[in-house]
Amino acid sequence: MTVEYGEFPEINGRDLNKRDKVVPDDFVDKNLIIIVAFQQWHQPLVDESISLLENNGFGDSHNIIEVPTVQKSSKLFEVYLDGIMRAGIRDDRIRDRTITAYVDLDQFLTNLDIPSNETIYWFLIEKDSKNILTRGYGIIAEEDLDLINSF
Question: Which of 24, 46, 101, 102 would bridge with 13, disulfide CB 3.0–4.6 Å?
Answer without folding.
Answer: 101
